[in-house]
Write a structure and sequence with these properties.
- The complex is a heterodimer of chains A (247) and B (416).
- By secondary structure, chain A is mostly helical.
- The relative contact order of chain A is 0.13.
- Chain B is built from six helices and 22 strands.
- By secondary structure, chain B is of the alpha+beta class.
- Chain B has a twelve-stranded mixed sheet with strand order 7-8-9-10-11-1-2-3-4-5-6-12. Chain B has an eight-stranded antiparallel barrel with strand order 13-14-15-16-17-18-19-22. In chain B, strands 20-21 form a two-stranded antiparallel ribbon.
- Chain B is elongated.
- At the A-B interface, helix 2, helix 3 and helix 9 of A face helix 1, helix 4, strand 8, helix 5 and strand 9 of B.
Chain lengths: 247, 416
């Protein structure tokens, strides 16, 4: 446990030193501000209230969950696996005391932490901004639940990227392949709606299930199980590849 | 027993796949309310258009502002698919004014009622129409509808779980309720935009005497309920949607739309032509564009551009010599002024055969030994419009013609 904690702290430290983190947060702030301007001006000039009296934060989540969150998660994941193998910095980690499993778990935990912080950051920011643009009542509990739920599908995507970056050689191919997978999964959902249940990308907006007056708990449970299944499967596959890989 | 790392990893992988597959299959099997409602609607339309002999439907659409109805349409439709007849009774209310509409149609005739003087108009159908047209089509077989369905499926996302299904005593009840926080921003923006500029635009708002939705427009709620009977037919459905908006004075109003449909008397509906004994009736025949008053002479000028001025060099004439049961006969000729000899001076006779085209008066003529077709129309009240060298595509309800340089299609009636 001590070793795992050390690996985790080490990985968090490495992430926090990356420029991409700063870029990610700047983009998050920008998206929230731009969204606020769009919503505000559409209401002022065209008279259309884009967010209705629903939460501005949910709208921001709707947009970012398909763009910024997966993109920066992919960057971080690739850096931490394919990147470290490519520039051989992984040697320092793997020749230490920690077993490969612990290194893998530590890295995944660090990625999850980054994602969570990013989500919490955007949530707080958008809640604050929404106080200025819509005077309506804010349902903090639902917003909080939605952001918590949004974590899981993006985390699954992170595991997909981890699997890919442990399989390919080089960071560019890993990045392109990850983007390709993301688009293919989304495309499949469009082309074959009856297969949606098998695709993790169609669960990206599953937090909508809790927004209505009627909450379909059995559906939420099914989607949750699907995501858990994905998580276990991808974790095992990713670890298998990581274990096999030569330094 | 200690598992090797590899075995443990593979076991975990298999476990993950199992959980994923079983829950995903369960999810597909259980389906969503949205999908079963869609199937049920398709089934209903398929049965109504091909399996049942006849049925009636009541449709009420009403538009309200702050709970007060400002426009309403009530219609009763009776359809006999086997006999290809239909009867429609409609009452429309706008601005406190009631307007009625009555229409009956079968294989032979269309009957309209004129509510101002209580008289009826009968339009006898032409034979050609009878076999090709169906009294009611299944909208879901339409290519456009099928494409629209695919797009809807792709975009509906998690909203498909809004619809719930309940079963009681053999009937299925579908209910759905979309509250404001659930409406996706894009849907909200598009429907608000459509509402402001398409449905209740400034002109319509003024005409209907309701406040124009100017700002702060958003969808408040949409809800619906449908009941499917034991035979798998949706026998009734209600739907209501409401939007909130502020008018130009900044006062907030709630605009709502209610829609309800009841399908009843399946295989129990009798569609009968109205009893016209003692009624004032006007008869006419479908598709007779020309009658005797069009017999006569028409002309226009042949004009040439000379330098920067127009110069008349001759005249074109059309003479309609006979019109009988929609068949037109006549001739076309050109007369050039002295001193202007054209390369070809055209002159030919033409005729139209009523049964040849449904939507147009198609004329046949022989020009320079070649058989050609053209189109003749009425224009204004007494003039005609003629296009030669036309190609008619009746399936698309259109035609095209190659226009000659300087040829004027409009011919003015000559009164002598």
């Amino acid at each position: 446990m001590q070793i795992l904690k050390a690996v985790y702290i080490n990985e968090i430290f490495k992430i926090s030193k990356k420029k991409k983190i700063a870029v990610s947060f700047i983009f998050s702030v920008l998206s929230v501000v731009i969204a606020a301007i769009v919503v505000y001006s559409l209401n002022n000039f065209a008279g259309i209230r884009v967010t209705g009296s629903s939460e501005f934060s949910i709208m921001v989540l709707d947009v970012l969950i398909y763009s910024l969150f997966p993109l920066f998660t992919a960057f971080i994941c690739i850096d931490m696996f394919a990147g470290e193998f490519a520039d051989h910095t992984i040697k320092f980690t793997l020749t230490g005391h920690a077993s490969r499993l612990k290194v893998f778990v530590g890295k995944i935990a660090a990625i999850a932490t980054f994602l969570m912080i990013n989500l919490i950051f955007v949530m707080i920011l958008s809640v604050v901004v929404s106080l200025f643009i819509s005077g309506s009542m804010l349902n903090i509990l639902k917003v909080l639940m939605a952001y918590i739920m949004a974590f899981l599908p993006v985390f699954i995507f992170a595991l997909v990227v981890v699997l890919i970056s442990n399989t390919t050689r080089g960071t560019t191919s890993a990045f392109l392949l990850s983007i390709f997978m993301f688009l293919v999964f989304n495309g499949l959902g469009f082309a074959f709606p009856h297969l949606k249940s098998f695709l993790f990308t169609s669960t990206f907006d599953w937090y909508r299930l809790i927004l209505g007056s009627y909450i379909n708990f059995s559906k939420i449970l099914r989607v949750f199980l699907i995501l858990i299944g994905y998580a276990i499967m991808l974790f095992a596959a990713g670890y298998y590849q990581f274990e096999k890989k030569d330094i | 027993m200690k598992l090797s790392k590899k075995t443990a990893t593979i076991c975990a992988f298999v476990l993950g796949v199992t959980i994923l597959a079983t829950s995903a299959f369960a999810d597909i099997m259980l389906g969503s309310g949205y999908n079963s409602l869609k199937d049920s609607m398709k089934m209903t339309m398929a049965k109504l258009t091909s399996e049942v002999d006849n049925f009636s439907a009541d449709v009420i659409i009403s538009a309200k502002i702050d709970g007060k109805t400002f426009a309403e349409s009530t219609s009763n439709l009776k359809l006999d698919i086997a006999k290809q007849s239909r009867e429609t009774n409609e009452t429309n209310l706008t601005n406190g004014e009631i307007r009625e509409f009555y229409y009956y149609s079968d294989k032979k005739q269309n009957i309209y009622k004129n509510f101002e003087d209580g008289s009826y108009s009968i339009v006898e159908k032409r034979k050609i129409n009878n076999d090709s047209s169906k009294i009611i089509d299944n909208p879901f077989e339409d290519e456009q509808a099928m494409d629209a369905e695919k797009i809807l499926d792709a975009f509906v996302g998690s909203l498909e779980n809004v619809i719930q299904v309940e079963e009681s005593s053999g009937k299925k009840i579908y209910t759905g309720n979309l509250s404001e926080s659930q409406v996706p921003p894009v849907v909200n923006a598009i429907s608000s935009f459509a509402f402001k500029y398409g449905i209740l635009d400034e002109w319509n708002a003024d005409r209907l005497d309701v406040p124009y939705p100017k700002s702060n427009i958003y969808v408040i709620e949409a809800s619906g309920k449908a009941i499917e009977n034991e035979d798998g037919i949706i026998e009734s459905g209600i739907f209501t949607a409401s939007m909130s908006a502020q008018d130009s004075k900044g006062i907030e109003h709630i605009y709502s739309l209610d829609f309800s449909i009841d399908i009843k008397d399946i295989n129990n509906t009798v569609v009968k032509a109205p009893n016209l004994d003692g009624q004032k009736v006007t008869y006419s025949k479908e598709g007779y564009e020309f009658d005797n008053k069009y017999i006569g002479k028409y002309k226009n000028d042949i004009v040439r551009e000379e330098g920067n001025s127009f110069e008349k060099i001759g005249e074109r004439f059309i003479e309609i010599t006979s019109v009988k049961d929609g068949n037109v006969k006549g001739k076309y000729y050109e007369v050039y002024n002295e001193g202007y000899e054209a390369d070809t001076v055209r002159s030919f006779e033409f005729y139209s055969d009523y049964d040849e085209a449904i939507h147009f008066t198609k004329i046949n003529y022989t020009d320079n030994g070649e058989d050609k077709t053209g189109i003749i129309h009425r224009t204004g009240s007494q003039n005609i419009n003629v296009s030669f060298n036309a190609t008619i595509n009746e399936d698309n309800g259109g035609y095209s013609y190659s226009s000659e340089d300087g040829f004027d299609n409009t011919f003015i009636r000559i009164f002598e």
